[in-house]
Each structure stands twice: as C-alpha cells, then as structure tokens.
Write a structure and sequence with these properties.
Layout lengths: L9 H15 L10 H13 L7 H5 L4 H16 L4 H5 L1 E4 L2 E4 L11 H6 L13 E5 L5 H9 L4 E6 L2 H13 L6 E5 L11 E6 L6 H5 L10 H4 L7 H13 E10 L4 H7 L6 E2 L9 E5 H6 L2
Parallel strand pairs: 3-4, 3-6, 4-5, 6-7
Antiparallel strand pairs: 1-2, 7-9, 8-9
Helix pairs in contact: 1-2, 1-4, 2-4
The chain binds S-adenosylmethionine.
S-adenosylmethionine binds next to α7, β4 and α10.
C-alpha cells in the first residue's frame, strides 16, 4: 500500500492522519471536537493503546499490517463521513466502556456528569430505588445510573428493537442483567403502573428543518434517535405530559433537549424548569420535580 513506512511511529501516524482529516473538512460531534483527537482514537484502537499508555508506546514503529488497517479506517472516516466510534465500535460514557454501532446513537450526553454526581442536589441518592431511562439507545444512561446507584433497579426503555439489542449487549457486558431491564415501549406505554424516583431521558429533539441541515456524519445515526417532528418537541411533550403519573412523591424528571432549549422555554412557559450547569461542557438539560409538574397542570 502506498505511503506505508517501516519507520512511522504511533505519534507520527496521529500527525499524518490529523492532517488528512483537517484537509478533508470533516465534522466533529461524536465524542471529539477536532481532527487530532479523532486520529488519536483510531490509532489507539488499531494499536490497542490504553489512555494511560507511557510516552514510549507512542514512539514505537508501527507495523505495516497495522498501518494498512489504519489506512482503511481513515478512508472510511473521510469517504463515508463515518463517525470514529462506529469504526471502532467502542466509546466511553461516564467512564464506562460501551459497544456502539449504527443501530444506536453515539453516546455523548452531558447527562454523564449529572449521573456521576448521582443527581445531587436534586434528589437524595440514598432514597433512590427505581430509575427509568426513556430512549435508552446503547443503554449508556441506564447502565451508568445502575453503577451510580448500586441499590436501584433501572428500566431501559426504547421503541427500537435494534437499539435494545445493543443495550442488552452492554447490560450483559457490565453484568447488570439482574438490575437493568430492557423494555420495548413507546415512551411510557409499556410501563403501566410503574413508578420511579428518577425518570431520565435523552430523547430525540431535532426539528424537521434542522434535520435537513445536519452534517453527513449524523446521517449514520438512526433517524429515530434524532428526529422529533416539526419543532423537535414531539418526545418532550409526551415526557412532560406523562411523567407525573410515573414519578413517586419527591421524584424528579431530568431531560436533555440540547439546543431545542429555546423552543422548550417558549412552549412551556409556565413550567419552572431548572436548567443544569456542566463543568465538562454541554447544556440544554432541565430538571423538574413531580410536584412542580403537577402544580402547573
Ligand atoms: C437521542 S437517542 C439517545 C440514546 C441514549 N440514551 C444516549 O444518550 O446515547 C434517543 C433514543 O430514543 C429512542 N426513541 C425514539 N422515539 C422513542 C419513543 N417514542 N419511545 C421510546 N424510545 C424512543 C430512539 O430509538 C433512540 O434510541
């Protein structure tokens, strides 16, 4: 294969790939925000380098076989605009490894930070026994919640049977099958009388016009995971309308709506949303208590 050299080190390959990605004008929105991090993720995947690899590991020459594998993946990143996590089938959420493929959205929600903080100060962690994740996709939020609350049972709900297959795989990998239940359901419809201390969701929230303008990278993700009707509020409306019936006294609803935040504020003026702050970036996540939801009905 042209361009392969016996002397190229892992570090040099990152430089080379980052340059190619930069020139190709790719879009970064799936866990990285620049060409260098995308290149490093691919090199680390092919060479099985861990994040804590010593500097010497980056100075070793890379075999021609590994270089050829890398070249193929880089080609797909450029030609197909394939997000890196779909190429490596691996990503991290709240410090936990997740299998991902094109059946599910690539996990990137700022909710990871909220879960790591055990939803404090909005609820006392010690009282949390049941959690529901609506639109679970890869299961990342449900799994991270189960890890953060070792005494809680978690329902991981999705309308997509394909997504639930991925969620089940991740649930099994993390050995959480006894506490995390995958539920095929349109929002709450399959949950009947179940009630929760926390309902958390990263639902679809992209409006019709915005969908048309998304960078090519996002077209590899299931449309079901992104599109939410004309104004992007289809799922949010259901969550706000039906959550009170499924929340216990003192329970909370926490929902990511991204840049649909403005539309949410406009459409639901009477709801006293608390918009969460994040130290690691991101936003557009609101919290409401059951009592706040019920009061304005
Ligand atoms: C934005 S993705 C979030 C995936 C995952 N929770 C994450 O944060 O990476 C939204 C998920 O909601 C699911 N979904 C869409 N409509 C739904 C519905 N009516 N009921 C339940 N899940 C739905 C999609 O299949 C998709 O997996």
């Amino acid at each position: 294969m042209p361009g392969l050299s016996q002397k190229l080190t892992a570090a040099a390959l990152v430089d080379k790939l980052a340059g190619r990605f930069r020139r190709a004008g790719l879009y970064y929105g799936h866990g990285t925000d620049n060409p260098r991090d995308d290149a490093a993720a691919l090199v680390m995947h092919v060479l099985a380098l861990q994040p804590d690899a010593p500097p010497s590991a980056w100075r070793r020459p890379v075999s021609k076989v590994a270089q050829a594998r890398l070249a193929k993946l880089a080609e797909r990143r450029i030609r197909e605009r394939m997000p890196v996590p779909y190429l490596t089938q691996r990503c991290w959420f709240a410090g936990l490894p997740m299998h991902v493929d094109e059946r599910v959205l690539v996990p990137r929600s700022p909710l990871a930070e909220t879960i790591e903080q055990r939803f404090q100060p909005w609820i006392a962690p010690g009282r949390v026994r049941r959690i529901c994740d609506i639109g679970t996709g890869s299961g990342c939020i449900a799994i991270a919640c189960a890890r953060a609350f070792p005494r809680a049972r978690v329902d991981a709900v999705d309308i997509s049977p394909e997504a639930l297959q991925v969620a089940l795989l991740n649930i099994a990998t993390h050995r959480l099958g006894r506490r995390v239940r995958a539920v095929l359901s349109n929002h709450f419809s399959g949950l009947r009388g179940d009630t929760y201390d926390i309902i958390v969701s990263n639902p679809p929230y992209v409006g019709k016009t915005e969908m048309k303008g998304l960078p090519a990278e996002y077209r590899h993700e299931p449309a079901l995971a992104l599109a939410a009707g004309r104004d992007g509020l289809d799922s949010v409306r259901v969550l706000l309308g039906q959550a009170p019936r499924h929340l216990r006294a003192g329970g909370i609803l926490v929902v990511e709506v991204g840049n649909t935040e403005h539309a949410v504020r406009r459409h639901f003026r009477r709801l006293p949303f608390t918009w969460l702050d994040f130290t690691r970036g991101g936003g557009g996540v609101f919290m409401l208590t059951r009592e706040q939801l019920v009061q304005v009905r």
